[in-house]
Design goal:
alpha+beta, Helix Hairpins
């Protein structure tokens, strides 16, 4: 809306300048004509004309008013022509500048000094186009890299599943303990395949901006306890323990499914990046203004320059991309979107060992 007002103001300014130019040049021209005509009828030139051709001189005298009007009209047309031509040249230069931005936004726009305002506006548009283009390219490159890595990750467990199933098929008389071992390995790899497939679906349907929120009264303490129970097998694999400090009941108006997804992402993230044999801590604090939830786990320190990027789509803090913990880089981005859809905030900090995610939800 502000951009539209600004361009309307510029358009009015150009039209006003054109009218002023026409009036000023026309008035000056008319004054010069009047001076010339006055000289014709009142000085030696008039005497010369009357002596040389008296009838022509009389015609000029009798037609003085008409002649002045005709000359003024001609001057008006000439002045208007050049002013309009100059204005059209300005419009053509603006159009060429717009075409230049479309074809090659890297080149700076240069216009005449009287179009400095428009030049600044076009250069601002050009800079925004470059910024949007670079962001789109960056997002596309991240997504392409992610798909390439995940394709590799899919191939790894699939190869294992096929290998162990072939062993079972080719050796039907294997000892029972080996059969159980191979079946267990193939089953675990199949679960990993299922997880990676779900993550692919997550990428293709990621569009939370249009996600509707259905709010109901929730007990956040109970919701978090349920999520921890569901994640118990994952914690057991790494011999992790957890503690949850909370009031007996923390009621909140929100979308239970969406918040369960957000909190579940944080719990799984804590499990994936916690040291083995360590503890995951969850703290819920309730005030008159908001509800604060803190997720804390012990793990490798995240560099400061990576902390600011953790909530970006497709960003992964672990450069090694360990297949056992590798995700899509969407989990924290989705969590942030869900929290913000509830008018809340989320942030992260860490010291030498502990990583903390802080959530604030308004009452």
């Amino acid at each position: 809306m502000n951009e539209l007002k600004e361009f309307n103001r510029i358009k009015t300014q150009i039209a006003l300048y054109s009218i002023i130019k026409i009036l000023v040049f026309t008035i000056i021209s008319i004054l010069l004509v009047l001076l010339l005509v006055d000289n014709i009828f009142n000085n030696d030139l008039a005497e010369f004309l009357s002596t040389s051709n008296n009838s022509f001189y009389l015609f000029l005298v009798n037609s003085k008013t008409a002649i002045i009007l005709i000359v003024c009209l001609i001057l008006e047309l000439i002045v208007s022509f050049f002013v309009i031509k100059n204005t059209l040249n300005s419009l053509i230069s603006i159009t060429n500048a717009v075409n230049l931005i479309i074809k090659n936004p890297d080149l700076e726009v240069k216009l005449d000094s009287n179009l400095a305002i428009i030049e600044n506006k076009l250069n601002n548009i050009r800079i925004n186009i470059i910024k949007s283009r670079n962001e789109a390219l960056d997002a596309q490159n991240k997504k392409n890299d992610l798909i390439m890595y995940m394709a590799h990750d899919l191939k790894t467990p699939l190869t294992s599943v096929i290998g162990y199933l072939n062993l079972l098929s080719d050796s039907p008389k294997l000892p029972e303990d080996l059969q159980k071992k191979y079946i267990t390995i193939a089953l675990n790899k199949s679960y990993r395949l299922e997880e990676l497939t779900n993550q692919f679906f997550e990428i293709t349907r990621y569009n939370l901006q249009d996600m509707p929120i259905t709010k109901n009264k929730l007990d956040l303490s109970f919701l978090l306890e349920q999520l921890l129970d569901e994640c118990y097998p994952m914690m057991k694999e790494k011999n992790l323990d957890f503690t949850i400090s909370k009031p007996n009941s923390v009621l909140f108006m929100g979308d239970g499914d969406k918040l369960a997804r957000a909190f579940g992402n944080l719990i799984k993230n804590a499990i994936s990046y916690s040291y083995s044999n360590s503890k995951i801590e969850i703290l819920i604090q309730k005030t008159n203004k908001d509800i604060k939830i803190i997720f804390k786990n012990k793990g490798d320190k995240i560099p400061e320059y990576k902390l600011d990027k953790l909530f970006e789509k497709f960003y992964r803090a672990d450069d090694s991309r360990n297949s056992s913990t590798g995700g899509t880089g969407l989990g924290l981005a989705i969590t942030k979107q869900i929290i913000e859809l509830h008018n809340g905030t989320i942030s992260v900090k860490n010291d030498n060992e502990y990583i903390e995610f802080h959530i604030s939800l308004p009452q």
